[in-house]
Each structure stands twice: as structure tokens, then as C-alpha cells.
Amino acid sequence: MAPGDTLPAMTPSFGQPVPPVTVVELAPGGAAVRLLDQTRLPAAEVYVELHERAAIVEAIRMLRVRGAPAIGVAGALGLAVLARRAADADTEFDATLEADAHALRHARPTAVNLAWAVDRVMRVGRRAGAHDSPQARASRMHDEACRIRDEDRAMCDAIGRHGATLLHDGMRILTHCNAGALATAGIGTALAPIYVAHAAGLALHVWADETRPLLQGARLTAWELQRAGVAVTVCTDGMAAALMRAGQVDLVLVGADRIAANGDVANKIGTYGVAVAARHHGIPFVVAAPRSTIDPATPTGDAIAIEQRDPDEVRTLHGVPLAPPTVRVHNPAFDVTPAPLVTAIVTDAGILHPPFDLSLPLP
Q: 54-110 pLDDT, tens per residue?
């Protein structure tokens, strides 16, 4: 099958999988955001409760919570927590809220879900009348943030159901980075079809790219797939093309942090190389992402801002030097896969096939 071909859809009977882990939630009482600190995985499963703007922004920026949907949910819940604090404090509510929203919105620039979720919560929190108290506005923001969380869970389930129709028993799937339950409020995006198919009894095998430099595939994807009982093998990023050449990969399935209107896909650095290798070997390359990840205002991938991260992420690994301490480092967090390399985009609304025109409303 050529990468541009339409994948056949199956019609198996799917069960409803249980998320292997919950990564972002409101603490009891709603006074804090409760996160699974993913920087501690797989060595330790540690949850943190964050009450203040600086701590929530730091958690997003330092990848304690990561994955485009989970970042959006964290931003929404975080803003709701901060709105409650501002409403209860003797402070200028509107000015504080605007500063909080600005800081959260810019914690990470590439994932469109973060700004989308923060802006959505802000819209319902704006003053509706002269007697609209800060407490009432904060309450509306809390309810909207919870809706975003619940919608994210439903979105994951829908992506899982749609995407699982592309899988078959015995399929060998290569993924890159982590787009599972650890990246969302539910069962994931790229891993959601795998969880749904696994719950239906399909025997699948996942090749998890380690995903340098922060090893999200080795540390996170392998951890959650093992936890869910899905067969998984970790490979270094440089092994993926050789696995394809050896006939060991049937499908590539990845997530996305932003999708441009023409179908260009920004995802974790290294995804583009996987897409090129898949095209060369005639392997379908499928992207799974929610509709909120599609940015109609961005015409092509060339207009997507790519985050540049700390050089020490490449120079060191958990504090151990891997390169000379003063060597220059190129460390973009993402790359862009051109739409012609994408076989299909699985969304919560259904499966999209080329030619992509994502500036139009989805079905």
C-alpha cells in the first residue's frame, strides 16, 4: 500500500478501555491542579498539587505535564484555580486574570490546544454585567474548564473508535514520542486506537521510538503500554528505518501538536524522519489528533512557531554529561511533516484523507 492510498476500514466490535493512568485533574475542592509529574517517570509515580501561577507555568514549560491535549486541559484547569484565588483575594480581579491567562498561554508556543483552552475559559469569565461578581465569574470558569476536561476524555474515546477501524489482528505499529493517556485527560490520541483494539481482543505489537532527547517513547509510551498489557518493544530513533526495511512495521501512528490548514503536521522532533522513511518503504503514516489541534488560521507548516529548548537537554541525560559542556546545540522541540507524507488524519469527528483542506469545518 502506498502512503497516499486510503486505508481500508474494518468493523470490529470494540469494548471501552479504561485509561491506564490519570495525569491531570482538579484536586478535591478545586483549589489546586493535581498532576502526575511525568519528569519522574518511569522511576517513580509522583503526583503534585499546584496552586500558584508560577508553579503551573513551570509544570507546563518543564514537561511535568505534556502532550497537546493534556497541556490544554492543564491550562484550562490552572486558569480556573487561579481565578478562584483571585476572586477570594483582595486584588484587582480583571488585571490579575489577564496576567494569569497571558502567562499560561505563552508557557509553550507550539501546541495550539493550550492557547485555545485558556482563551475559551477566559471568554466565559469576562464580566457579563455590573453586578457580576468575581466569585460568579470564577465559578463559570471552573465549570468551563471541567467541560474542556470532559470533552477531552470523550474526544479520546472517539479517536479510539475511529482509529481502531484501521487496525487488524497481528498488526505491528510504530509510534514516536507519547500520544497516549499520559498526553491527554483520557486514553490518548495516537494510542487510543491501540487501547480500543486491545480491549476488543486484537493482538497488536507496538514499536516505541525512544524519542530523543527527552525519551518520551522509552520513558512514557513503554510505561503506559506495559501498564495496560499491550505488547511493546522500545527501539532507538535511528532503528526505525531499518525495522521498516526488514518488514517489521505495518503502520506508523503518531500524534500532533498542531495541524495547519493544508494538513502539514507539527509533532515531536524526529517525526518527519519517520514519515520520510515510511513513504520510502510504502508504509501508511497516520496522524491522530483532536479537532482542537487543527489550526485553520495557520495556512501551512512553515507558519508554525517551533519551540527551541534548553541545550542541556541534549548535552546531558539526568545530569550525566553526553557532550562537551560548551558545545553548541540545536534543540527544536518539534518538526513539521508535510501533508503529502500523511496517509490519513484520525480526529474525533472521523478519518480525513488527502487532499486535506482543514480550513473548512469538519463533519
A: 999 999 999 999 988 999 999 999 999 999 999 998 679 999 999 999 999 999 987
Q: What pLDDT, in 10s, does the model give residues 209-242? A: 999 999 999 999 999 999 999 999 999 999 999 9
24-155, CATH topology level:
Four Helix Bundle (Hemerythrin (Met), subunit A) (1.20.120)
3-state SS record for 201-231: CCCCEEEEECCCCCCHHHHHHHHHHHHHCCE
* Residues with a known catalytic role: 257
Domain boundaries, the chain: 24-155, 165-352
Q: CATH: 3.30.200.20, 3.10.20.30, 3.40.190.10, 3.40.50.10470. Which one for 165-352? A: 3.40.50.10470
The pTM of this model reads: 0.88
Angle between helices 53-61 and 93-105 in degrees, nearest 10: 10
Q: Could you tell me which residues come within 8 angstroms of residue 139 by beta carbon, excluding any fewer than 6 positions away?
A: none
Grid coordinates standing for 90?
A: 483582595
